[in-house]
Amino acid sequence: MIGTEIHQFAQELWPINRSITGSGVRETLKKISKKLPSLKIKSVQSGTKVFDWTVPQEWNVKKAYIVTPDGKKICDFSENNLHLVGYSAPFEGEISLDELKEHLHTIPEQPNAIPYITSYYEKRWGFCTTQEHFDNLKNGTYKVVIDSTFSQGELNYGEILISGKSDKEIFLSTYICHPSMANNELSGPTVVTFIAKWLQEVGKTNYSYRIIFIPETIGSISYLSLNYKDMKNKIFAGFNVTCVGDERAYSYIPSRNGKTMSDLIAKHVLKWTDKNFVKYSWLDRGSDERQYCAPGIDLPIASILRTKFGAYPEYHTSLDDLKNVVTANGLNGGYWAIRKAIEAIENNKIYKTTILCEPHMSKRGLYPTISKKKSTSGQIRLMMNLISLCDGKSSLLEIAEILNVPIWDLYEIIKKLESQKLINVSNL
User: Does the structure show a pLDDT above 90 at 358?
Assistant: First the structure.
């Protein structure tokens, strides 16, 4: 099961401290590049203007912790990256409990969870801990140590371009900026890594593929600022990939347009993957689809997910782990949902019969030579219905919807009809 390999890769990436910049991003990209040697690691310098945003200074952390009045080290960054507020400014000093509490973050309604908190564009410092731990803190003097640095460095991202028969591109984007969280981080880049491996192994695809591993928001904005004109000309369909590792649900977030090929494919695949999949609206967006579908950008990007970000209780907490939330089976389901969507796009062509009126199928070995009750049911009936709809106007996806079958049930039939030269094919 491919999900087992993906889960093992997620475990390898788990300890790395990732943020929107810094050595953790580069380390993550290097590990991905071991599986994808063609991955190009690129950079955008700190201070670069990207549309309405500016790439922030690079942030790195050596150590961060608090020492209690009785000498016990708590909120140790080395034990869990979530203990330190992302982009915390350096600080070292002794403060009272009341002063410390102003810099501590908890989730009272989830007393055993460490929250995920960031402050990218306003310098401050802080720690995150469980409410249970917070409630047990004693009065006294606490020592705070945050050994972090800001520098004029760079924002890093990874990119792969896989050339196909057409210059039209399918776009996959996933983010690499969240520490110590499984579904809302590691499921996306690990699944996309194995999707990219598969695409490179299948040989010449019909479409070309643009695949990026980026920091969320500022990464997509930076990438778009450099490439959006080319992307608008070339991208035919695509998906923002995140939260694809749990076993609880399948979900869909539309593009802003809601009617692109990505939307049609996503809804079709999920309908036949899980009849109870959750269909969200554009107003439920929250990841990089915000950037790709922004007015003026208007890329045809939708999202296929397992349980959507913000829709599961462990979201943005230390409880979003590789044991109780993200599983090998969950990742397997996420992988195949994305892969089936890509295969559907690849196979979604226009077909037209080459013979006027109904072709004589039995002489080609495609139809029973003896007529019996129900001899034309099942696959035979499906094939004849498919032929009847190959009018040179309808796509295979449209035909599958009319026939009320998953598009992949038609692939082998199409191959048989093509081998007998009963249909002509043209691209969308």
Answer: no
